[in-house]
Amino acid sequence: MKKEISLEIIEKWLKDSDWRVRSAAMNACNGKDVPLEIIEKWLKDSDWRVRSAAMNACKNNGIEIPVTRTIEPPEYVYKKCLCGIIVVATIPKNAHVRGSVNSKCRASEAIIVDICGDICGEKIGISMHDPKTMYEIGDHVIIDNYDFSDNECSTGYHFFCTKREAENY
User: Fold this and answer.
1) Which domain holds residue 40?
2) How far from the centroid of its chain's Cα atoms is residue 110's Cα?
3) Residues 118 and 161 grouped into a single domain
4) Are residues 47 and 103 in the same domain?
């Protein structure tokens, strides 16, 4: 028989220094009527596994996952594609973002606003890592299997915060 864990115990576990205890506390929230502010706080935890457990608690409790971001991206972000083409995008306010300034970042959504360069006269960006993925102005890219971890090379729309970083990639 599964033991019922009280909200008081869960809140105490959430303050523990060990990410495994905090993650277990978030997992114990599943199916409980837990105040949204408790879950929202742990969506910002320093450990991605705790954040992931908090997101699962949201899903399992029918709560929409609030936007989580490790950085606030600039108005325009840049992605290097084949043949040196740079795709310029905006990241919607409701998109999740992982990464940091001066490194590769990724988001759950992007809107393509410009293409710098062309291939045979066509303004199109072709992914350097997956030639089946192409970008055109106006595309709204949505990553259905977005990974909320801090792993740089994981699912998401990858970008740099400056054009120079993208060009040098």
Assistant:
1) 7-60
2) 11
3) yes
4) no
Lowest mean pLDDT among 28-37, 92-101, 114-123, 131-140: 28-37
Nearest-Å Rg of the Cα atoms of the chain is 19
pTM metric for this prediction = 0.75
For residues 41 and 82, membership in a common domain is answered with no
Q: Report pLDDT digits (tens) over 130-147.
A: 899 999 999 999 998 888
Chain segment 19-43, per-residue pLDDT in tens: 889 888 888 887 777 777 888 788 8
Q: What does the longest C-alpha to C-alpha distance in the chain come to?
A: 67
From 53, 65, 114, 119, select the one nearest 87 (Cα to Cα).
114
- Tokens read off for 90: 């905006």
